[in-house]
Amino acid sequence: MLSESTTTLSGEPTAILYPRAGNRLTQSIGRLVYRLMGWRLEGDLPNVPKAIIIGGPHTSNWDLALAMGAMLDKGLRFSWMMKREAFVWPLGPLWRALGGIAIDRRDARDVPQQMADWFGSVDAGFLGITPEGTRKPVTEYRRGYLRIAHAAGVPVFIAGIDAARRTVVLDRLWPLTPDIDSDNAAIRDFVRANYNGIRPEGD
Q1: Which residues touch 95 (CB under 8 Å, ≥6 apart)?
Q2: Which of 21, 75, 86, 132 could form a disulfide with 2 if both were Cys (CB 3.0 to 4.6 A apart)?
Q3: For 8-11, which contacts have Cβ atoms below 8 Å and span 24 or more sequence positions?
Q4: pLDDT at 201 over 70
Q5: Max alpha carbon distance in the chain (Å)?
Q6: Which are the contacts of 94, defined by CB distance < 8 A and separation ≥ 6?
Q7: pTM of the model
């Protein structure tokens, strides 16, 4: 299994809080994915037990391979949302094993509340979301990820795709305010100013 500790700047060990998965073999597979694609990974995950991790700009199907390679490399178990109807036999157990969370659009609770309940049910969980919601060029980010963050009381972490340098950067936790619209615009502007997708014109 992966080590359950890391080190501080002083060299002292500290417990890893984020959800863990895999082993040294799967870490090697993640690094191999990057080498084969000619990309590299920079930065570290935040040592927090729960977070929403957003990746952008999302412009290509290759983004999924980059995300999976990064998560394997870092030994992170992350989850993602999928409509409840997809969780039928025989694929339902597979989706759950891979981190899928069934979302019921007919539930009286809205999606942010369903996800807040999910976060409350786990000791550690990272939820992956692409705020554009599509590979096509968009002018605005959807606000759902921030609504979930506020409902669940969890931070938002930014991972950026820098296609010019063929690098994925595990960048930073973003300080949230009560103003979702302002935060959404600031996050969008930060990502656009610092990162560029594989296909800026969209797939």
Answers
A1: 82, 86, 87, 102
A2: 75
A3: none
A4: no
A5: 51
A6: none
A7: 0.86
